[in-house]
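Notebook, bench 3.
Goal today: get a predicted structure for Endo-1,5-alpha-L-arabinanase A from Neocallimastix californiae so we can plan the truncation constructs. The sequence was checked against the plasmid map this morning, with no discrepancies at the termini. Length recorded as 488 residues. Pasting the sequence as submitted so the record is complete.
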Amino acid sequence: MKIFNIVGILSAVKLVITAAVLKNSNYSSGVSVHDPSIVKNGNKYYIFGSHMDTAYSTDLRTWKTLYTGVNEKNKMFSNLFSKSNYAPFSYVGKNSDGSYSVWAPDVMYNPKMKKWVQYFCTTSSFIKSNLCYATADRIEGPYTYKGTFLYSGFVSNTVSKTNLKAITGATDGNRYYPNNSYNYKKFPNAIDPSVFYDFNGRLWMVYGSWSGGIYILELNESTGLPKHNINNGNNTDKYFGKKIAGGNHQSIEGPYILPHSGSGYYYLFVSYGGLTSNGGYQIRMFRSKNPDGPYVDARGRQFMGGKNADYGVKVMGNYNLPGLTKAYMAPGHNSAIRDNDNKVYLVYHTRFNDGAEYHEPRVHQMFLNQDGWLCAAPYAYSGETISPTGYNMNDMSGSYKIVFHYHTKVNGDISNNYTIQLGKNYSVSGKFSGSWGYTARTNFMHIKIGNVTYKGVFLKQMDEAKSKTLVAFTAIGDNNDSIWGVKV
């Protein structure tokens, strides 16, 4: 009897030790950087954001501030606020608050120029903006402003302050401002630049926000400036480049293109909705075999007209997950990076369901599914590595909390958590019924609920409190929805 009790006590102790409890997360990245654009140098990751905010990290989880604030004391730039002419703001002027706006930078190393190049925008209204660039010998700067190279929002009495005539030779600007009003539903707002090299070593810049949509221009690698090598057409313009998405002043902004040689695709990320916590901000994804498109979604369609919600894979919107103390709200304006070990990371800012507008950056790992789409892990990155040979049935089967990211929603609703069971007989039961399966000796999985088939991967990752390793899945549907599952 005494032996039995001792064994029972020891077994109970062992159970307590091995069965970790999921704790509520108070995770903070340590910084607040809006519109984070990621770049890596050595063993450091940097995010450059709006308002001249910059931070760095070595683990993609904890960040430290490097620069912050639009003012002369910010040492990111050496001459942005030159007292002689304030050149970056000479066209746009001050914003409605009576201050200067410096937004949405993107930084890359240009080997031809042998410089770090920062592309950024200054703006004063929803259409009056310009794109600028600055260079530095070190990634941390200081950056020297070199010039302004693309303008939007001009009319007859302001076009002379731009380079439109010098680039196009046009003496009549009515194409851009009929009735002396900038045609913002057709032509872009010159903000949110991001740059990338294609598989053949050509340099490109994608940009735009709302207004006439997202445009792309090829850049001259030797100068870092646009080539302006296309003619005017239905969706092309010698000055602004080629339209690849959006238009008619629908919400779409923060474009970022990630080339992935492993899949052979270029992935275009954009954000829909308004950026406030209840504005429905969210991340969408398209892809193409060519750097300048056409970019299509999981239904094989381009967003060149119609309602924005109908187009684009919804990577994520507002959501809550087990262990989170407050829902993530308005995730968006992302960048992405494919690291030296081929891991892909999605970097974005998010607000929270706390009645405020405070925001922080987050990083989620992404994985290619069977169809070559990138699926985002449910929780923020904490160092996990997915098993290339997959997981066993005991790992994969069981009870899951799931979240749908419905593509039809561009609003402030928070996606509900539902409970389902993945049976060892490949059935789905609980809140929804259906079937599931996996590909042997891989991490690929699929789940069918209703008439929608989602394809993705199983993985193991820690909850955001880093209290427990969880089995999870992430998958993309053939209808542009995404689904996340966390085993509980």
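The chain has two domains: 37-366, 393-487. Residues 1-19 have pLDDT under 50 and may be disordered.
Flagging this for group meeting.
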